[in-house]
Structures are given as structure tokens and as C-alpha cells.
Design brief:
Keywords: Cytoplasm, mRNA processing, mRNA splicing, Nucleus, Ribonucleoprotein, RNA-binding, rRNA processing, Spliceosome, tRNA processing
Protein name: U6 snRNA-associated Sm-like protein LSm6
Structural class: mainly beta
Distance between the termini: 33 Å
CATH topology: SH3 type barrels
Strand order of the largest sheet: 4-3-2-1-5
CATH architecture: Roll
Helix content: under 10%
InterPro entries: Lsm6/sSmF, LSM_dom_sf, Sm, Sm_dom_euk/arc
Largest sheet: 5 strands, antiparallel
Number of strands: 5
Order of helices and strands: HEEEEE
Subcellular location: Cytoplasm; Nucleus
Shape: globular
GO cellular component, one term: P-body
Strand content: over 45%
Length: about 80
């Protein structure tokens, strides 16, 4: 038998990292680092204990942050 992997969607992957630290890169080039609190089917993301980075420099700190899905470029 071949070793077959079940294909997973990005939402499936992100659901496995709920509660973990993540970095969200926006289309604008701004990065947010925080704890992944939740995400929905539109890829809207809620982060806790969030830090905002502009040009690699810490710009702001927020308790909770909501990022609309169409603004996100990648989540690592």
C-alpha cells in the first residue's frame, strides 16, 4: 500500500495551531505577531497579545486584534 496523505486546507492547518504564536503578514507589508485566538471560513483572524511591526520594527502593542481575511497575505 502506498503511503497517502490526506490533503488539508489552510483552514484545517490553522485550526491545529489555535492558541499558538503566529505571524500574520498583510498585503500592505505590515506584520502582526500574536497568539491565534480564532479564525473563520473567510480567513478572518483574531489574535491576542498582538505586536505590530512596520519595516521590521515594533510599532504598537494591542491586547486583541481582528484581521479581515482579504487583508492577509500569509500566516506562519
Amino acid at each position: 500500500m502506498e503511503n497517502q496523505q490526506k490533503s488539508r486546507s489552510p483552514t484545517d492547518f490553522l485550526s491545529t495551531v489555535l492558541g499558538q504564536p503566529v505571524k500574520v503578514k498583510l498585503n500592505s507589508g505590515i506584520d502582526y505577531k500574536g497568539t491565534l485566538a480564532c479564525l473563520d471560513g473567510y480567513m478572518n483572524i483574531a489574535l491576542e497579545n498582538t505586536e505590530e511591526y512596520v519595516d521590521g520594527r515594533l510599532k504598537n502593542r494591542y491586547g486583541d486584534t481582528f484581521i479581515r481575511g482579504n487583508n492577509g497575505k500569509m500566516c506562519v
